[in-house]
Amino acid sequence: MDFSAFDAYIEAHIEDALADLIALCRIPSVEGRKEALGEAVAKVRELAASAGIAAQSVAPRADRPPIITGEVGDTGPLLMVYNHYDVQPEDPLDAWETPPFEPTLRGGHLYARGVADNKVNLVARIFAVRAWNAVYAALPLRLRFIWEGEEESGGEQLAAFVDARHEWIGEAEGCLWESGYRDDSGAPVISLGVKGLLCLELRCKTASSDAHSGQGGLIPNAIWRLINALNTMRAPDGTVTIDGFQERVVIPSTADLALLDPLPWSAEEYRERYGVDMLVGGRTGTEALKVLFFGTSCTINGISGGFEGEGTKTVIPATARAKLDLRLVPNLQPALVLDLIRTHLARRGYEDIEVIPFEGNTMPARTSPESAIAKAAVEALYAVGGVAPIVYPISPGSGPMYELCQAHGVPAANFGCGWSGSHVHAPNENIRVSDFVEGIKAFGRLIEAFPRHAASTRNERATASDSPPALRQ
Amino acid sequence: MDFSAFDAYIEAHIEDALADLIALCRIPSVEGRKEALGEAVAKVRELAASAGIAAQSVAPRADRPPIITGEVGDTGPLLMVYNHYDVQPEDPLDAWETPPFEPTLRGGHLYARGVADNKVNLVARIFAVRAWNAVYAALPLRLRFIWEGEEESGGEQLAAFVDARHEWIGEAEGCLWESGYRDDSGAPVISLGVKGLLCLELRCKTASSDAHSGQGGLIPNAIWRLINALNTMRAPDGTVTIDGFQERVVIPSTADLALLDPLPWSAEEYRERYGVDMLVGGRTGTEALKVLFFGTSCTINGISGGFEGEGTKTVIPATARAKLDLRLVPNLQPALVLDLIRTHLARRGYEDIEVIPFEGNTMPARTSPESAIAKAAVEALYAVGGVAPIVYPISPGSGPMYELCQAHGVPAANFGCGWSGSHVHAPNENIRVSDFVEGIKAFGRLIEAFPRHAASTRNERATASDSPPALRQ
């Protein structure tokens, strides 16, 4: 198919697309900021309308940011598209070169909190539909958008939403996931799944109040106790040592590991990008890559306790707390891991340490590279840039992919407009404007490619079922 | 000697004494609050003047709170009296029942930050001199007060002050140390020394900025690294495991341990007072008491890093820090322990963790129970309350006793107006007014007793030197 008119439209109207993106990034749609979340909802609906997408807000909980659904297209296979309009909190604020909610163009990059994760993709995909409508007669597929507002905070609304719509979701023959990026070589990346996620807080209280540290030899210290407990959960080389945890990890198959072979990943470049002298456990090369794609992690996101001001205070703190997240691979479900942690701590005499899960933990999910969405994504990206995309077996990030897709039999894959220096979840988050342009073009190619691959996947299935199973004699 | 007129004066004027104490406690003389520290200096000088004590401010560093010296008495042995006019910071503020700098009388107690540590003693000792002057002809001893303003913050001025006055300080035949208390049974406590103190901060930086926790398996986490390092420094049972540390601890002698025998200490009551289920390492009885008086401790006073707000942030923190204090017994000098820690961490590959000492670390110090100040203190306390005081071989707290006293050959002991529920360095710090009254009376007895014991100590020394050593034939 000839995309020259489509591409010409995008190039002629890129300032409009950029204006849409800047307007959306200007809204500080962070958990708890109700007014901003409301503005983001209005903006998403306005963008949808501009592309002829019929949008609807659904709010299982009235006090929370709604899920917005959007539908467009009358015929062809159904492709689901998932994005979110909320963003990570912006702190540490002083590490930003320009304010996180004042989107700034600098050297071909756009800097803003949430621009890469994932507002750029939300805008690019809608804008591609607008371009398609402007240039072509009709869409060759049906698109069903799901835009949620609790991805970064792990709200429970999406679960309630999908529970009530198992068949509606199952109608989709594939799903394009929220975001993606180009790696260091500039090649676009497709990920066929996500790691699972469990976020929790550990709280420790050892005495009725803080005490003078002259009693430090005898009065228990909540920080020491918390630290001692944490140290039983992870070895310094990064291995999670929670009882029963490693036993449940699905060891990558030879076929899984073969997916790593073509990856152009360099541990050295990776270290340099993050400004790190050594990777966890001193890992290098394929060993590091295996951890990234098939490994688990237990991260302390934050810790606090006692006197945190300047100078000294000779005090024994009575309370301390730590926030943790665990990235999970099959077959580690969040609820199971939570149980394992509680049992692990209790066995070691730490039953007094409270283990409090946050909302919105997610399952690990994987998609076959033979699925229509995976094949169409590869074709679309190759068609735009002329560079073979890199296919990752799983994304090191997490999201409710299992809950929204695999649980309903919908294969999901991702690609998007970030790059390896996007600083997702960190200060100075940014995208390159050139990637934004290519991202809009790539979604146009996906609109064309997905129906073909969906049809051939259906044919394969049909052919396979032509041979009825042999009856037992 | 008959003290009835002295005691009558105190009882008749106790409201004046209490007014002095309340006025001093109203001043928030915390490190860094220059105006309040200046007010405290003026108030101390005003109180000194009211008792005929000639006071002088000495400030080796003009930007810091001065040391005030005060002298009174023309004849007799010289007794040094050490107190400080600064107090600990008041946080956590919301744990106070009444504001820390609005001294409040409630149920016979006076609540205020710094009242027990140690403004009550500063006021009681001055007021005793005032009472003595009002009732008797002349003081039978010379008193030299040293009031400093950096005890809680560990300033370096006292070191500079004493370095320049080795002989002036060495003239004293004893020193009464800043504060003391009554134990659970109501018996007054005398401590013959202090533990040493080393305060420091550990800082860890693992990457150029925070990263998304999807990379948690590979990107080093500053909190985990700091925690891993901390865990090599102390066992969960409280034993300090810094290389070379335990080897230098002077093991208590049989005579030292015998000092513990008469102590009426109960681990159970101690636990209850602090609201603690179990002491560190599950210690009980004499084992716990040995740790309290002859043991060391490594306390984490505070820790911070990463996301400390509400909710979740899936981030790998690039920086983390912890504040520590170590309580030291002979022969652990702070400078030596600092070296041990640096070597210990470097040996384990943690040379990237910065070890930053705070100012004002102090040496451990011990005093003989046969010294004039020890004997006079026992006599003075017994004379007031009719209860034999409890003599501790060392105080679990710390202070510059070695630097100010033992380094110049001056034996030092303490007693004071606190009680076992004074909550020193903690919210709701308080004293009992009845202990304040007895504390003033006790200092009066010390004024009378010290010259006698100093003379007999001198006689003993003289008698001992009457027998010249036998000459080798």
Question: What is the arithmetic mean of pLDDT of chain A?
Answer: 93
What is the 3D shape of chain A? globular
Number of domains of chain A: 2
The secondary structure category of chain A is alpha/beta
Determine the CATH topology of the largest domain in chain A.
Aminopeptidase
The end-to-end distance of chain A, rounded to whole angstroms, is 52 Å
> Helical percent range of chain A?
25-40%
Short description:
Chain A is α/β, with parallel strands linked by helices and 473 residues long.
Structural overview:
Two copies of one chain form a homodimer. Chain A contains 14 helices and 21 strands. Chain A is α/β, with parallel strands linked by helices. Chain A has a six-stranded mixed sheet, sandwiched between helices. In chain A, strands 10, 12, 14, 15, 16 and 18 form a six-stranded mixed sheet that branches. A three-stranded antiparallel sheet of chain A has the order 4-5-21. In chain A, α4 crosses α14.
